Amino acid sequence: MTGDVVGSMVTRVDETALPPSVPPATAGSTAGEGRERPKRNREATRRRILDAARDLFGEHGYDGVTVRMIAAAAEANMALVNRYFGSKAALFGEVLAGESALRGVIAGDPDGLPRRLAEHFVRQVDRQPPSAITRLLDRSAGNPEVKQALLQYLEEVVVEPIVAQLDGPAPRARALLASTIIMGGGPVRRLLGLNDLRAADPAELTDRLTAMFTAALAPSPASREDPAATER
Description:
Elements: H1 3-8, H2 31-60, H3 67-74, H4 78-85, H5 88-99, H6 102-106, H7 113-126, H8 132-140, H9 147-165, H10 171-192, H11 195-199, H12 202-217, H13 221-225
Helix pairs in contact: 2-3, 2-5, 2-8, 3-4, 5-9, 7-12, 9-10, 10-12
């Protein structure tokens, strides 16, 4: 259903309606009480929609899910999905950003970043069943409707936080190189599977990945030897 059609519908905002068993507010109710209940209910409805969307996108992929399915699973009015999130693609992007553990992995001591990224990568390899974010990416990557959401996710959750951790020249290029290692696991997982990686010794795999991330994030030898290279 398009946004114009939804916008023309006369809908009842069911999250602000009181259950039949609860009497309407009396004249003695305070203004604060009248505002608090709808706010709490809006937040709860929004959370239900996000949870339902996460599960459905993870199970069926972006193409296999409709706004009607999400609304039904969340026990919410279809109009509320569009009102709170604007579109299915925007909802997908919010689910994607909210599910990622990478924000916490990247934050912290910059010197320990390569090791943290390596440990995160190995955790994702060993995790069974795959995490919600892994399922979302596996089943939805390549869809043109979610391209912008995926680009925004990559920028805001991966690239920009890594750039903020780096000193020296060309921080974005180094962050993109590390991001290639992080995100490149998806195609390998989808096409070749992870059995060989799961069979490897986790400690050795973590050490190898730490070396890879360290090399990707380090300033180039030329820039370290020539301070003027930073200005070029």
